[in-house]
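ok trying again, last paste got cut off:
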Amino acid sequence: MILESDIAQYLDTRRPDNLKQFSTLEGFLGSQLYSEPDLQKSVDVQVAIIGIDETRNAYPMPYAAKADNVRYWLYQLAAFNNLKITDFGNLILGNSAADTYSAVSYITESLVSGGVIPIYIGGSHDLTLPIVEGLWRAKGKIEIGLIDSCFDIADSLNATSRSYLLDILRKYTSSVKCDVIGSQVYFTSQSQSDLLDEYGVDKYRLGTVRQNINSLEPVLRDCDFVSFDAASVRQADMPAAHQPSPNGLYTEEACQLANFAGVSDRSKAFGIFELVSRNTPMEMSAHLTAQIIWHYIYGVSQRENDYPACNFDRYKKIFVKLDSLNTDIVFYQNPKNDRFWMELSQKNGMAGAVVSCSKSDYIALVNNEIPERLKNAFRRYGI
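nice, full thing came through this time. structure:
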């Protein structure tokens, strides 16, 4: 779509000198991204990359972040000829973190409203908060996926990278649904887990990713925004993550989750955060971060105009009688890719909804078995 906006005042589109060498690599992202866009004019773009080196609200203290380190590797990866993608440069940081938040929220709202998918290279994880605010302003009710090793719900007077999720849940109780993927039980207290249950947050531990990563595709298919904490990847693979852990996602799992997010026609934004600009381990971490971003973009390039980009008229409609709840559940199946959705009708004064699901979820309900994720959905929508 054509973007017409005054976001140029918030962005520095200049390119570092070390990226110029990649501008002539035909067939690679450097040739697509090196030219500086003129944001004072209309820009025809589908995907926009933006760096945000903001860490003033990082926990326990600020650190140096540099999105250009990731660009160095991203520019060397294969291009996408079927996508109009550009690099909008780095956000000009505000006088305070709150000023930066305002700019991020405005840019997100402007881009998403214009049909552009922003990809953010952070920066600390609290930047999720203004991105969610901008998305909410643009779209209303949304669902977000957080790929993180812990729950960032510390009770704090100010938003930090360890408390922002609680701020989101409190502020958008009825309009933002949240999923957390990759959490590790030793980083989680029982009181934190109980609190997230109260807010209806669906939690998927690292073991779930390891045992059946494909079960998370429908979870990410339902997300309007996925926020990726670099520290969710194990330290051996992401040594420059802020507060890394010896356990975590493997590189292939991180890239696969990003791809699941990108291929969803519902996904409107993506961000990866908590990468420290250190000299020694930075090179491998920046390279992996670039590959995670590449897999998200690759997913976008492979979209199939699925729901909600289209309606269900062309899908197969299946009714399943669920004896345990004495109700009929309506499924829709896309015969081209075998993806399933479940329609939950309005009931008990609550609005209906469409929930993405897998073929195994469908088979389970046919056998009157209810997977945990669908139990949570039934509970949430009053079934």
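cool. The chain is about 30% helix and 20% strand. The chain has two domains: 2-301, 312-380.
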